[in-house]
Amino acid sequence: MVESKKLLNDPTDIKQQFSIFSEFPELVYLDNAATTQRPQSVINRVNNFHQRENASIRRGVYRLSARAAQEFEAARSAVAKFFRAPQENCIAFTQGATESVNIVARSIIEATLKPGDNVVVSLMEHHANLIPWQMLCQANGAELRIIPVSELGDLDLSELDTLIDARTAIVAVVHISNTLGTINPVEKIIAAAHQREVPVLVDAAQSAALYPIDLTNLDCDFMVCSAHKMFGSFGVGILYVHPRYHRQVQPYNYGGGIIRSVTVKETEFLSYPYLLEAGTPNVAGVIGLAEAIRFIETLDRTSLVKQLHQLTNDARQKLASVEGLSLLGNPALSSSLLSFSLDGMHPHDIASFLNEDHIAVRAGQHCTQPLLDHLGVPATVRVSLSIYNTPSDIDKLVGSMQAMKSFWT
Ligand SMILES: Cc1ncc(COP(=O)(O)O)c(C=O)c1O
Question: What is the DSSP letter of 155?
Answer without folding.
Answer: B
